[in-house]
Every structure is written in C-alpha cells, then in structure tokens.
Design goal:
Helix content: over 70%
Mean pLDDT: 93
Order of helices and strands: HHHH
Shape: elongated
Number of helices: 4
Radius of gyration: 13 Å
Low-confidence stretches: none
Structural class: mainly alpha
Distance between the termini: 53 Å
Strand content: under 5%
C-alpha cells in the first residue's frame, strides 16, 4: 500500500511540473519564470494552464 501511495505521489508530482518540464526540454529563455509560476500558482487550475500555455507558445526572437 505504501508503494502504491509513493508511486501515485510521484506521478502526480511529475504531472504538476509538466509545464516546467516542457519549457526545460524546449530550452526556453524564461524557464525559471515558468517554474516559479508553476510552483506558486500551479495549485490553481488557472495558474497551471497559464504556465502550460506559456511553455508551449512559440518563442519569437527579435
């Protein structure tokens, strides 16, 4: 039972930080800001969705 609980917590943690993982994998310039937004506002659905959209948005270099 403890193993199942540990696996569930690990899976939920990975899903929670999915926007940060996407931004890190795509080598975004603002990965730190996406991580901070995800860490502090990701608990609300709106903050998590904003972080995900920000991580998936194409980066325009001027």
């Amino acid at each position: 039972m403890r193993l199942l609980f540990a696996v569930l917590i690990a899976a939920l943690s990975l899903f929670y930080f999915l926007p940060f993982a996407i931004a890190f994998h795509r080598k975004r310039a603002n990965t730190g800001a996406i991580f901070a937004l995800n860490l502090f506002l990701g608990w609300s659905l709106i903050g998590w969705v904003v972080a995900l959209v920000w991580a998936l948005k194409d980066e325009q270099i001027i």
